[in-house]
Amino acid sequence: MSYSKGSKGASSRIRDYTPSRADDWKLPTGNAEGHALFIREVIFPYMAANYRVSATERTYVGNSLGGLFGAYILLEHPTMFGSYVLGSPSIWFNSHDLLNLKLNESRSPIKVYISVGSLERPQFGEKQDMVAGATKLKDKIVTQAGESVTLKFNIIEDAKHATAFPTTLIQGLDWIYGKPKVEQR
C-alpha cells in the first residue's frame, strides 16, 4: 500500500496501520479497522474484476508497522488472507495493546511466518525490544489458534530492524509456497 493522496510523510501509514488511538502520538492513529475494510471491500473486488487472482490464496506481507497491521488483520479478520509474513511487527505500539485482542476463530487453514532480527533490542541501539514483542505475538497465536494455524517463528542472527526484512520476506515466502524438502538417500 502507498500513502494517501495528499498525505505528507508517513502520516497515512501511521494512521492506517495502527489498531488503536494513541493520544501521545502527534499524528493520528487507530484506523487499522477502516483500512482493513477498505482492502476487503474495495481492493479485493477491484483485483478480482481486473486480474486473475485467487480469493483463497492471498498472502499478506508487512514489516514494522506493516507487521503490526498484518497481526491486527490476523487477529480480527484471520481469513482475509490465507497466509501472513509478519516482519519485526511493532507490537510495542500503544503499550502492546494489540496483545489484548482475541484471535477470532478460523476453520480455514492459515500459515503465519513471524520473523525479527536478533539485534532489534535496546542494547543494540533500537528504541524498542522488537524480539520480545514478536515473541509475545507468537505465544499469543500459538495459545489461541488451535489446529487451523500453522506458525513458524524465526530470529534472524545479526540482523537489525533495517536489515531483517529482506531475509524475512524470502524465507517467509519460501516457507509458505516452497516445496517441502525431500530427504536424500
Give a brief outline of the structure.
Helix content is 39%, strand content 14%. It is globular, with a radius of gyration of 17 Å. The model has no long low-confidence stretch (mean pLDDT 92).
Describe the protein's architecture and organization.
The chain has 185 residues and is α/β, with parallel strands linked by helices. Helix content is 39%, strand content 14%. The chain has helices at 11-17, 32-50, 65-76, 93-96, 130-145, 164-177, and strands at 59-63, 83-87, 110-117, 149-156. Strands 1-2-3-4 form a 4-stranded parallel β-sheet, with helices on both faces. β1 (59-63), α3 (65-76) and β2 (83-87) form a beta-alpha-beta unit. The longest helix is centred in the first third of the chain and has 19 residues, at 32-50. The radius of gyration is 17 Å and the shape is globular. It starts with 10 loop residues before the first helix and ends in an 8-residue tail after the last helix. The model has no long low-confidence stretch (mean pLDDT 92).
